[in-house]
Write a structure and sequence with these properties.
Length: 580
């Protein structure tokens, strides 16, 4: 190895002598052979034993990047949709280090995966990251642990508990309405939008507002009060210690770099104080301190209520956390089925991550779609204005067909969560509803998958498949769900019924036992906020017609092309509704 020697002569001058130089060469050789074996294992052996080798899919281009660079360069999930068109509903592609990943948009395969959740856990790496970030809450627990947690938590999301938190949704929605109307009257710069309005975007009586930011404040306040009777006051106060701690923790937690990956895997390395770890620990100290205090307070209140003889359902906090603690304390829960205090604490963080940005993002995309399709906004407003009640009940608001259609259609077209990943927990055979042509030319009607294989579930591709939704699958048509307006044809309806989602024949809330626990909460929240806003203001695309692109991290959010430095945002023209 001639290229190594020129660098070695400096060693003697360090007093190490040629024995040390030999040692260095041996070390290099050893490292080299470890790398070579790792290469042989990862690239050649793993590929050779790949049980699903015959699945079709795009050619890899780079050993290192696989198809990852195409995936990152394209719009979220666009590559997956394109591959589904060229290779069939089930295919494989290449991730980092040439590792193989299966992707399936086949409803039969998806149904199998989602109904056998024990065989398809979240990947080990994802779980390690999430456990460090959230603790062992319901989003990350697997197997028996998960079932135990869901059993305690399910009652917290019952129809009655949604009814109980409706006033929180209305209070916060009305506060948001006042905040936006106030912003329109106030003409100081810099609060409403990260970038100043250009001349053509100034309109009498209206204002350019980054609606995403304010919807985010609103959903954060909602999850605080409805989740654990804690008011972040994001809409009314500039700063909150707990909100800041959560935000910092989540953004540090989402920075995946090589060191962070090593930290998750190599024992002991997790304790090394990198910048990322230090930020996470400092924020966690705050969230845990406040979280534990909230839990103690609620336990105390529930015990008090018991000793003073209050009835079980009486006024001792209707928030999710109180319900969870009460369910956990109930006499009919056996001790081994109970959640530990650490697990209860982990649910707080879990609800904060799973319930804040998802809901605000869904609302943001709804406003985007109704400004892109102004006739839908007019129709929606007409329906909402016709309601006499300022605060319709959950049943009444759910019964509004067009509001329901707008929300359903937006969640279908621009699903906040674009996809999710599972891993085969054991060797398993996945049945396919639609066979695909293998690389050897033979048709494949089931896929043999070995333990550890990674599987991507492309939520947005299924949501918008023409095969399932018809030729207008990519269009925003809220009336497609309404039987009285033509609705869907029978054949498509049957295709949709084959989608194993928990709600609405779409996978936006996923499906099976690991489906979103909060979907009824989210739907009620979104509808209330939209109902309140649409009755008092109008939303329009800016006259400068900025191009909006979709950026995916945990959820898919908008960004303005050309204003990347301003971060994620959705600026719209907001006008108070002329009172007639
Ligand atoms: C529009 C809003 C929402 C969307 C689109 C959404 C979507 C989803 C999706 C796709 C999953 C599956 C994630 C995966 O396994 O990879 C999920 C799980 C979950 N969601 Fe939601 N969610 C929303 C709102 C909420 C809210 C408001 C809450 C709580 C208050 C919540 C709590 C959860 C929890 C706890 C899980 C984990 C369930 C489990 O693994 O058993 N979500 N959600
Ligand atoms: C990487 O993936 C390709 C494509 O299937 C495969 O042919 C090849 O053997 C793998 N290994 C290497 C070293 O490229
Ligand atoms: C991945 O797949 C795409 C599309 O089929 C292909 O054009 C590309 O060369 C592949 N490789 C990379 C690195 O993306
Ligand atoms: C909640 O969501 C909003 C908007 O997406 C975001 O700005 C904020 O940082 C989130 N807060 C927390 C605590 O996650
Ligand atoms: C939001 C999103 O990812 N939408 C995608 C849905 O799927 C179609 C193809 O089926 C893509 O073109 C969209 O970008």
């Amino acid at each position: 190895m001639p290229s190594i020697y020129p660098s070695i002569p400096m060693l003697p001058s360090l007093g190490l002598g040629y024995r040390a130089a030999d040692f260095a060469v041996y070390t290099l050789a050893a490292v080299g052979s470890v790398l070579a074996s790792a290469f042989a294992y990862l690239w050649l052996y793993k590929d050779w034993v790949l049980t699903h080798k015959n699945l079709p899919g795009p050619p890899r281009e780079s050993w290192f990047w696989g198809n990852l660079s195409s995936i990152i360069a394209a719009e979220p999930a666009a590559m997956h949709a394109q591959w589904a068109r060229t290779h069939g509903l089930t295919y494989r592609y290449r991730m980092l280090f040439n590792s193989s990943r299966i992707c399936t948009a086949d409803p039969v395969a998806l149904n199998y995966i989602l109904t056998h959740s024990d065989k398809f856990p979240k990947p080990e790496l994802t779980r390690k990251f999430l456990v460090d970030l959230l603790g062992n809450g319901v989003l990350v627990a697997e197997g028996a642990d998960h079932r135990r947690q869901r059993r305690v938590l399910n009652p917290c999301f019952s129809p009655q508990s949604i009814r109980d938190v409706m006033p929180v949704f209305y209070d916060k929605a009305e506060e948001l309405r006042e905040k936006l109307l106030g912003l329109i009257e106030d003409d100081s710069e810099g609060i409403a939008s990260p970038t100043p309005a250009v001349k053509e975007d100034t309109v009498a009586g209206g204002r350019k507002i980054d609606v995403m930011r304010f919807l985010g404040m609103c959903t954060l306040d909602v999850i605080g009060v409805a989740g654990f009777s804690y008011d972040f006051k994001a809409l009314s106060q500039p700063k909150n210690e707990l909100a800041e701690a959560f935000s910092k923790m989540f953004s540090a937690g989402q920075q995946f770099n090589a060191v962070a990956i090593m930290q998750a895997f190599v024992p002991g390395m997790g304790k090394i104080p990198t910048e990322r770890s230090k930020t996470m620990w400092a924020s966690q100290a705050t969230t845990q301190r406040i979280g534990r205090r909230l839990i103690q307070e609620k336990k105390w209140a529930i015990k008090q209520a018991h000793t003073t003889g209050l009835e079980k359902g009486d006024d001792i906090g209707k928030d999710l956390l109180s319900l969870c603690i009460r369910a956990n304390m109930a006499a009919d829960v056996r001790p081994e089925q109970k959640l530990t205090d650490d697990e209860v604490l982990a649910q707080i963080t879990t609800f904060m991550l799973a319930g804040n940005e998802t809901s605000s993002t869904a609302l943001t995309w709804i406003l985007y779609l109704i400004t892109q399709n102004p006739e839908t906004q007019v129709k929606l407003r007409k329906e909402c204005m016709a309601v006499q009640d300022e605060r319709p009940s959950v049943e009444d608001i759910t019964a509004l067909p067009y509001l329901g259609g707008v929300v359903h259609e937006a969640l279908r077209l621009l699903s906040p969560v674009q996809g999710t990943i599972r891993e085969a927990g054991e060797d398993v055979v996945i049945p396919l509803g639609t066979p695909v042509r293998g690389r050897d030319g033979q048709m494949i009607d089931s896929v043999k998958v070995s333990k550890g294989s990674s599987i991507f579930l492309p939520i947005s591709v299924i949501n918008t498949s023409e095969h399932i939704w018809g030729p207008d699958a990519k269009e925003f048509k809220p009336e497609r769900y309404s039987a009285s307006e033509g609705g869907m044809d029978e054949k498509l309806r049957a295709e949709q019924n084959s989608i194993p989602g928990v709600w609405g024949n779409i996978l936006s809330f996923l499906g099976g036992r690991r489906g979103c626990i909060g979907y009824q909460f989210a739907l009620a929240e979104i509808k209330v906020i939209l109902f309140v806003l649409i009755r008092s203001m109008e939303f329009e695309e800016l006259a400068s017609k900025p191009k909006i692109e979709k950026k995916s991290s945990v959820v898919m959010r908008p960004r303005v092309v050309g204003e990347e430095t301003a971060g994620l945002q959705l600026p719209l023209m907001v006008k108070p509704l002329a009172q007639s």
